Amino acid sequence: MTVPYHHQVATSKPHLILKLLFRWKGSVWKSVLVEYFIWIVSYFIIYAIYRYALPKYNQKSLEEFIRFCDKSLGFIPLNFMLSFFVTTVVNRWTVMFTNLGLIDNVALFTAQYVQGDDARGRMFRRNIVRYCCLAHAILLRDVSMKIRRRFPTIDSMVPAGFMMPHELEKYESIKNRYNKSWGRVDSEYLEYAVATEIRNLRANMITIWQHDWVSIPVLYPQVVFAATYIYFILALFARQFIIPQDQLSGEVDLHFPIISSVTFIIYVGWMKVAMALLNPFGEDDDDFDCNFFT
């Protein structure tokens, strides 16, 4: 499941907020570390070339390019693009989370309304729940790499208890599925209650399957990711401090790009939020633990 932290924010005391801010697992620091290291190293390479390797006339040409990059940054609507993209991804993540589906309701209704203390009645109840668990596991096997590794083939579900050997043979041989009926429910209403819960579970699974089948158009994340990286490639030059002609200009050369580093962490971290939520059935720290549901 996602990284738990609610116990650390039980109150709004400042030291708890700081403790949350500097968590490592699933944090923004962990997600942007590699990109930031590459960016800051590239920044200082350009810094060293500009100040110590270029002659004066080449420095002037680079300074013109730095001014051009600084003006060009304002033409990339990064705030606008990231806002809409993250909103879209978060809404998609919310729908997938609310439709993960639990077997509990089906099991409770089946145990209550499918009667019979004999072996045949118990077999009906167990099989109804097991078939629902099997359908759920087959779905999660298609959308989650963790479950795919746990059950690399349909055959591997037999030792796990989801299927019986003879059911596997029928599963592989039957091309069409048909509804089954049984006579262990006292009334049509009770049968309807059990069937409704099974339909609800099926509807949840269909929603998950549809979201896995139809992804967000690839050009959308491509545009957002490209815009973010292009923005900070230009920032490598645009955020260089131009050596002033007048030593008394009053401009402060901090050497280290403090504000640019903060901007990088915020924007790239914002982009990483969308990347982490884009496929919640993956293997990141904050992805769903599908093994829990199987």
UniProtKB/TrEMBL annotation:
The keyword Transmembrane helix applies. Keywords: Cell membrane, Chloride, Chloride channel, Ion channel, Ion transport, Membrane, Transmembrane, Transmembrane helix, Transport. It holds the Pfam family Bestrophin. The chain crosses the membrane at residues 36-54, 75-95, 219-242, 254-278. It is a multi-pass membrane protein. It is found in: Cell membrane; Membrane. GO terms for cellular component: chloride channel complex; plasma membrane. GO terms for molecular function: chloride channel activity. InterPro entries: Bestrophin, Bestrophin-like. The keyword Membrane applies. It comes from the Eukaryota. Belongs to the anion channel-forming bestrophin (TC 1.A.46) family. Calcium-sensitive chloride channel subfamily. Forms chloride channels. This is Bestrophin homolog. It comes from Mesorhabditis belari.
